[in-house]
Amino acid sequence: MRREGLALVISAPSGTGKSTLVARLRNEFPDFGFSVSCTTRKPRENEVDGRDYVFLSREEFERLRTLNHFAEWAEVHGNFYGTPLAPVERMLRGGQDVIFDIDVQGAGQIKLTLPKSIFVFILPPSLEELERRLRKRGQDDEASIKRRLVNARREMTGSEWYNALVVNDNLDDAYDALRAVYLTGTLAPFRNPDLVERILGGHPWRN
Ligand code: ADP
Ligand code: 5GP
What we know:
binds guanosine-5'-monophosphate
């Protein structure tokens, strides 16, 4: 039996390095499906519509929300973000593992709808370092940086129910921890329902 895909839900305060870590994971495991979210935020310079996000107006987002288009949605830093349900269901049913890059509120909703998901929260080593990274990225104006720092504290205090906390201090160490959590998840017996049977079935002394 083909195993059901694993949903790997990754959250982190903005600027922690989540996109960097997710890009590495997708590079090492190119078969990963990625849940492309919809957002009402304006695209950043290097972002491509349909690849990084589907960029929508608030009206269009709200219309889709009323049509139950989203597996979860949340307002984050003053913008709407949501995960389209249909592509995620298709990928998981087809046995493809899927990465969700979503905030704590959205992750809480996925915990209810897809409870077998693996939830990883990436932490910055400190709030000072988080601020440095936000500034270094140079993608957000001053007000947006302030808002992200205020939200970071709240997001981190809501992370106790995740399966794993990974501190992104040294990038290589954080990546090793993230991939270990993912690989451990894929080895769960319920994700490999006929593995033992297949091994025993091929044995000549099977009883
Ligand atoms: P996020 O997706 O969490 O908002 P990014 O991946 O965009 O964060 O990273 C924010 C900034 O921090 C980027 O400039 C990135 O290169 C840098 N960064 C990521 N991980 C580390 C790390 N371990 N040490 C130092 N800088 C990092
Ligand atoms: P950014 O604007 O920096 O790309 O993302 C801001 C925050 O929104 C991040 O914490 C990111 O994980 C979260 N986010 C991105 N897409 C979604 C989504 O579809 N749903 C939810 N709930 N959060 C999302």
